[in-house]
Amino acid sequence: MPTDIEIAQAAKPRQIAQIAAAAGIPEDALTPYGRYIAKVDPAQIPGESRAKLILVTAINPTPAGEGKTTVSVGLADGMTKLGKKSMLALREPSLGPVFGMKGGATGGGHAQALPMENINLHFTGDLHAITAANNLLAAMVDNHIQQGNRLGIDPRQVSWRRCLDVNDRQLRSIVSGLGGKPNGMPREDGFDITAASEVMAVFCLAQDLQDLKARLARLQVARTFSGAPVTAGDIHAEGAMAALLRDAIQPNLVQTIDGTPCLMHGGPFANIAHGCNSVIATKTAMKLADYVVTEAGFGADLGAEKFLDIKCRMSGIWPDAVVIVATVRALKSHGGCPKADLSKESVEYLEKGLPNLLTHIDHIRNVWKRPVIVAMNRFVTDTEAEMALLRSACEKAGAPVELCDGWAKGGEGVKELAALVCNTVDSAPKAEPSYTYESSLSLKDKITAVAQKIYGAADVAFSGSVLKQLAKLEEEGWRECPVCIAKTQYSFTDDAKALGAPTGHTLHIRQVRLSAGAGFVVAFAGDIIAMPGLPKVPAAENIDVNKQGQITGLF
User: What's the pLDDT score for residue 457?
Assistant: First the structure.
């Protein structure tokens, strides 16, 4: 069986100018990056938003795999096969997962975005630009302290961290500025992965370049000896940061194997940040197509919740329907089935794991009040008895199930799902947003609302001085902010090993961090961290380039 990269390399993509013309993108809006990639200037796209927006999410991920991006690509391709004018709005990959454990973010099999090697590696340099802007600000903060410290910054209260788009646990906590006075003020420091940085979050929530610059100016980097906040604007860094991001802020146009246009832009992690592609790319796609398929990272408890409660709240968009991706194998894994036995029929394990899917369905229908469809990636080992149980359970929960085979057949294998989704959104009345919590609630109550309504927690435990920090943030004017909970993606709880759909547990909040530019407060639950480490055998060990310059081993 061919690998994803072999299938991608065998594909015959069209010139990007042809893809742009078919999508209705004016030539003046296009800046080509080679033959198959281009930047798109949103200011040159006329018209108003017209598309139906479909959000693709998933059950909590398992080692058995779900295939959310593959379904997203296949769904848009299925719509194209049906003669619909569709477009994708997806996130860019981070090098951390590419070289680590999770893999890339271009889909799989015959439901992929092209050129997959370029996209999964440097692409158009957006993540490098974000890294550079973040670290320029860090350098300017330390330089300000070194050059007289006019603002009176307390080096012990510098909160701005450097970033790197590689998993490197060695850099989580460091001491910088060693080596004497010429090398700066020694202080505790650290790195986050670029996808978890606030510059990435700002980049993806900005409406345009000027909004980006305004958000960059609001970034809080430190406090003074008297406790007053210091911003990037106080350091006069926002102009140079915006200059570094000027080209990056334009969405990237690529195509699927089936020729469906895709705007791929921004890449925040959903277990740490808000997990959605850029507002600019989504809104641009909604001007160009009749149906836009987008996705949010990891399970619906993380990506979908943040898409709806953060991205939609800030941008004014709202999905017309939500698709949940699942597999029988993954649901059996949630039911406790050993990995070695996932290919064997087990209605018992499936029944035990179904509550994970059913809980996500309940949240989408009853908390966010959206139509929901289950997309089932079928494996050859799935049995009729297992499929019958799955269909029956989902239908009782109010969610129709449709099989999809995008990996093997591209859009042809997802036409039935595409037809169901199009019919659903075409017949659904326009709905008002229904959020998990109101903006008027306190930050503590917002965190509690997500924990209880979405995670099934009975209580929230706030460690140490977290409640005092939340109170101080409210005093400083941040009460109206949404909250962005950083927690494990593998469970509704903050314990990665608690599979299924546990209830009655306690969510442990150990730290909070203001993201002033992004406009939300991050609450860290359990032991989640903002700089992942590489696994015992990282994917990087299998990636190579042959003498013809062809990349191998990239999935």
Answer: 98
Helix axes 466-475, 443-453, angle to 10 degrees: 120
Q: Rounded to whole angstroms, what are the CA distances from 376 to 147, 372, 401, 416, 474?
A: 59, 13, 7, 12, 43
Q: How far apart, in whole angstroms, are the C-alpha atoms of residue 159 and residue 169? A: 19
Q: 2-14 burial by CB neighbour count: b if 16+ within 10 A, else e?
A: eebbebbbebebe
Per-residue pLDDT reduced to its tens digit, 399-447: 999 999 999 999 999 999 999 999 999 998 888 999 999 999 999 999 9
- Helices 68-81 and 415-427: angle between axes, nearest 10 degrees: 80
Q: Which two tokens stand for residue 311?
A: 């991205």
Catalytic residue numbers read 68, 70, 91, 102, 270, 298, 379, 407
Q: How crowded is residue 61: how many other Cβ atoms within 10 Å of its Cβ?
A: 21
DSSP single-letter state for residue 328: H
Average pLDDT over the chain reads: 96
43-81 residue pLDDT tens = 999 889 999 999 999 999 998 778 899 999 999 999 999
Q: How many Cβ atoms are within 10 Å of 356's Cβ, its own excluded?
A: 27
Cross-strand bridge partners of residue 509 = 462, 525
* CA triple 293-294-297, angle to 5 deg: 145
State the Cα–Cα distance between residues 131 and 157, nearest whole angstrom: 22
Percent with pLDDT over 70 in the chain: 100
Task: Tell me the C-alpha to C-alpha distance, in Å, between residue 527 and each of 268, 272, 408, 487.
Answer: 19, 11, 38, 8
The answer to whether the beta carbons of residues 42 and 60 sit under 8 Å apart is no
The phi, psi pair for 163, rounded to 5°, reads -145, 165
What CA–CA distance (Å, rounded) separates 73 from 111? Answer: 5
- Give, in order, the Cα–Cα distances in Å from 285 to each of 9, 46, 81, 374: 26, 12, 19, 24
Using the predicted structure, report yes or no on whether residue 235 has a pLDDT greater than 80. Answer: yes
